[in-house]
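re: ur question from yesterday

yeah so i grabbed the chain u mentioned. its 336 aa long if i counted rite. heres the sequnce exactly as i have it in my notes:
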Amino acid sequence: MKFIDSASITVIAGDGGHGCISFRRELNIPKGGPDGGDGGNGGSIWFVADKNLNTLIEYNMKKVIKAENGFNGKSYNCTGKNGKDIFVKVPLGTQIIDKISNKIILDMTINKQKLLIVKGGFHGLGNTRFKSSINRAPRKRSYGSKGEIKEIKLELLLLANVGMLGLPNSGKSTFIRSVSSARPKVSDYPFTTLIPKLGVVNISNNKNFIIADIPGLIKGSSNGTGLGTIFLKHLSRCQVLLHLIDIMPIDNSSIINNINIIHNEIKKFNKKLFLKPIWLVFNKSDLINKKNLYFKIKNIISSIKWKEKYYIISSIKKINTFLLCKDLMKFIQNKF
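ran it thru and got these structure tokens back, copy pasting raw so excuse formatting
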């Protein structure tokens, strides 16, 4: 299914049904009193978070959602039927935003969480309601009120504990395949990953976390070049970011320059995201002998004056990947 992470829709609640004007007219009661029933309430629209969904594609095609109107009242004091409520399912992590004010109404982060977004109109009253001691035959009723209408935006932000960053072909997809059950496409050409992928990393029976892989960033991403920044917003909920670095780039590019490219693009895109904990992960360590490997990385860390955590792994050979995941689990648990 195509991944869509935003949509704009109009939600319209049902109108209330009108009250009825009616009088009893039976064979033995030629001049009976009023018996007009009330109308029914209009249907409301609710949003419900569903953990089984992962895209907003349905609402990219369905621009208007309208609930059923309440039915009008009838004779013999029959009340009109209420309009049916509509329950709109959205993926976990969906933000419901008022399109006019641009304010977030609610962030749907709990499975089965509900939000009443527009309320159905109130029912009208039948003429029976207006009977009094001085007006035994009222020819009066009230009309049902209009249902609420809202224009809203839906923005999906994936729920992940760990987010991965890196240039194309840095090994992000291979890493997520090696530590989780996710199976993203892996190849030796750039931009293999075209949409975000989520994987669950199980450390033990009751310890796990969710990791997100987004398309690789390139220089100029913050200005719209490439694919990465389209999906960078999906890392906003992560507690920690992993910056995967190819220790043996095919194009022989400078590793220090490659690191700076990613950090500069994140900073330009969103300073709040840049301030999240970032761990450097030097990948493909199996391609170089240990002595040269550690000497090379020591020089890189010294040159960029890196003070945060860093790891040396091989995703394809699963070297140090479990150690990294265990440390991630500890970090996430200490965050709560």
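noticed a couple things. Residues 6-156 form a domain with the Spo0b-associated Gtp-binding Protein; Chain: A, fold (CATH 2.70.210.12). also Residues 255-269 form the longest helix (15 residues).
anyway ttyl
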